[in-house]
DNA sequence: GCGGCGCTATTTAGTCCGACATATTGGGAG
DNA sequence: CTCCCAATATGTCGGACTAAATAGCGCCGC
């Protein structure tokens, strides 16, 4: 990435433009843009852990936003464990171990630039751990509504492929519905993170080249096992699915 | 200042006192207290999902804090997925499925009142899914530093029992060191959540009655297996540990 | 007269500004 | 070496103004 330009304390010049350009779309607020800017700067490593970022007054002026908006953005980062600020000491970046990596926003920031291969591997490892067991639970607890949601997601995946955004959304919906079917709130919470991971990695697979393998049969196998209430089969099918997905992703990066 | 008392919504009366009492200790900032107050109110269900909470001006006056501080607190809640706010529409509580339940702060709020039995069960289910596999990974990847950290944590657990805060901290340190030993950043991120769960549930076990069973041997078994590099044994030992812990917790609630 | 449609009016969050309070740190006085 | 003071950066405050989204009103068409 462009690690060259570091001129002013955090790119005073192009800062405003960068913010506006990434926040223009109806929806994102100003502080959201600032949070995104700072968040990506930290997650990408442009501001290293332990480092102190510029004072509020100076930095908010540099970004051309009010101190209030800037502070609210920093609060968001604080809430996600990226930074910690104390009077006089300033605001400093916390060690990576304190970051809430599972937070959807943090994941989005992590994937907004060049994705860290090791981190992708870690995410898939988490999926390998969680999703097969989730499938097992889902096979035992799913109700009609759960099955319906999963079935519809599969239909959408079939209609649009993973090449389209709608298809990827359906993929996410499938995994989300599966996690929902466990009726476990902790796993459902993980769903947001895993869904994000699925989405970003799939996108990279697509970006790299046409998908060599059709992922649909794998999904169908998982669905059938869950519908049949066969926990072991569901777990196995899901493990195969995730491992194949990892393989595809790895070969395309 | 507050020379007049306002009959505001959201418990205007005891609000200020509650804030001060819970924020007095040197460290917690004012907005942190507000966030804690609102967070517990939401997580505990006092403000139901879909409900609109009082406007910023009114509510900040009721809590006797500036609008800035109040807003920064709301930003924290927004960052954790508890609420969403739009102009004119107001700030409304999001459905539970959108909450970042794994966020340490949210977990703390969830356990600050009466713990939801179902949620505790869900957390243990997550532990059963994650920790045995983590132990397996740790057995394969741990280095000397990891083993040292785990060993020290065990020593601390032996010195102080789980009846003391120091002992519980050691327990958390052990699980944390184990997750660290996987060298998987996603699992490390889960460590904070799992650690919180371990902590709170242990505390409840203690509160209920003297612990009938000594948890140390279980931990030692896990450590030995990891030190030996035996993944299967580590996984099995950890599963036993978590399941026994669940049993203890359940019987004491 | 009735129904739908667009415009304005209002409400509420979002942003901005400038001042003061508080806490921490680092250096200087005793 | 200790203690206190002052410099500094975050924290809190209050009020003003902007922007966005809803709801209600009035206009237009049927």
UniProtKB/TrEMBL annotation, chains A, B:
Pfam families: FCD, GntR
Superkingdom of this protein's organism: Bacteria
InterPro entries: GntR_C, TF_FadR/GntR_C, Tscrpt_reg_HTH_GntR, WH-like_DNA-bd_sf, WH_DNA-bd_sf
Keywords: DNA-binding, Transcription, Transcription regulation
Disordered, as annotated region: 1-27
Protein name: FadR/GntR family transcriptional regulator
Domain HTH gntR-type as annotated: residue spans: 28-96
